[in-house]
Specification:
This protein has 318 residues and is α+β, with helices and mostly antiparallel strands. It has helices at 12-22, 57-60, 62-73, 117-133, 157-168, 194-205, 259-269, 273-294, 299-314, and strands at residues 31-36, 40-45, 49-54, 84-88, 98-102, 107-108, 215-217, 226-229, 232-236, 243-245. It has 2 domains: 12-102, 2-Layer Sandwich (Phosphorylase Kinase, domain 1); 107-314, Aminoglycoside 3'-phosphotransferase, Chain: A, domain 2 (Alpha-Beta Complex). A hairpin with a 3-residue loop joins strand 2 (40-45) and strand 3 (49-54). This is Phosphotransferase.
Length: 318
């Protein structure tokens, strides 16, 4: 089932035809499914390449952004990031830009891959800090690098309030199926307390906005975009949401990580309480909007959102 009303069809046959037309030197390499997210579908090409096709015209605009900025950012960062190899052009069969990258070996961050969560949180903080400190090199939010997570919370209030309403109504939320199930503390079990989550959201809205200068943001540091090798953080991938803006939302993804990683991240970045509260509100916003929007089309992503929100509720302060 398509995730978006304006989604462009794509499959391995299409990928093979694009390669034959635009990259014939690689067109005969083995091709296999490499995963999919809310914005892109991935294909592994041979042993060393990755094809990424956007789902919609809106997400297709990230291709030019990554090909422009990743080569400039990569030398300044402490971990590998994707290396663009080819910027695919639209065709009659696929009317969107697409990308070819070097493959980066690694596994998604998780309990079976990370050896030391405290070290992982510290390393992630180092990456965020170095990315943010990197010179903007003339980049601005108005120069194609605008993303809602780099702005202020208040601009999203009407949208997120609607998402809370949808979640309470059970729209797309698996909680409606297990509302009577006991909450045993396990990730993803039992109903969510959307009233408590909304209080956290509204509490952050009442805080003064960030006065930090604009800087670089990855904007989507969820575990599937953090590759692990030998038990530690190896690379950061998927810069489709790369933006310039305020730092608060960049820290939101730490609620996808265990408490030890979150605590280590907090200590390494040295955030003040107001910034932490706004970051937590962004974690809530991404979670409830994911449940509301993808409930009927992407249950795995909804489960991720539920786990993030459950971690927010379970956390005491930090």
């Amino acid at each position: 089932m398509p995730l978006h009303a304006d989604e462009v069809p794509r499959d391995a046959t299409l990928v093979r035809s694009l390669l034959k037309e635009q990259c014939p030197q690689w067109a005969d390499l083995p091709l296999s499914a490499g995963g999919a997210g809310t914005d892109n579908t991935l294909y592994r090409l041979g042993a060393g390449l990755l094809v990424r096709l956007p789902r919609t015209a809106a997400t297709g605009r990230s291709v030019q952004k990554e090909h422009t900025w990743l080569p400039r950012l990569a030398p300044r960062l402490p971990r590998p990031v994707p290396e663009p190899v080819h910027a695919g052009t639209p065709t009659d069969a696929f009317p969107l830009p697409w990308s070819l990258y070097r493959w980066i070996d690694g596994e998604e961050a998780g309990p079976d891959t990370v050896g030391d969560w405290a070290a992982f949180g510290t390393d992630l903080a180092e990456f965020v800090r170095d990315l943010r400190r990197t010179d903007l090199m003339g980049a601005t939010r108005t120069g194609g690098l605008r993303w809602y997570r780099g702005g202020g919370l208040r601009a999203c209030d009407r949208w997120i309030s609607g998402c809370f309403d949808d979640c309470r109504a059970g729209t797309g939320d698996a909680d409606a199926l297990d509302a009577d199930a006991p909450d045993d503390g396990a990730p993803g079990s039992g109903p969510l307390d959307f009233d408590a989550l909304e209080r956290l959201w509204r509490g952050a809205l009442a805080l003064p906005g960030s006065r930090a200068p604009h800087g670089w943001l990855h904007s989507d540091l969820k575990p599937s975009n953090l590759l692990v090798r030998d038990g530690g953080l190896h690379a950061v991938v998927d810069f489709g949401c790369l933006s310039v803006g305020l730092p608060d939302a960049e820290h939101a993804a730490v609620w996808d990580l265990p408490p030890r990683a979150r605590e280590a991240y907090w200590n390494a970045v040295d955030l003040d309480d107001a910034t932490w509260a706004r970051a937590r509100a962004w974690a809530v916003a991404v979670g409830v909007s994911g449940i509301a929007h993808y409930g009927e089309t992407l249950p795995a992503f909804v489960a991720e959102c539920r786990r993030r929100l459950r971690a927010v509720l379970a956390a005491d302060g930090r």
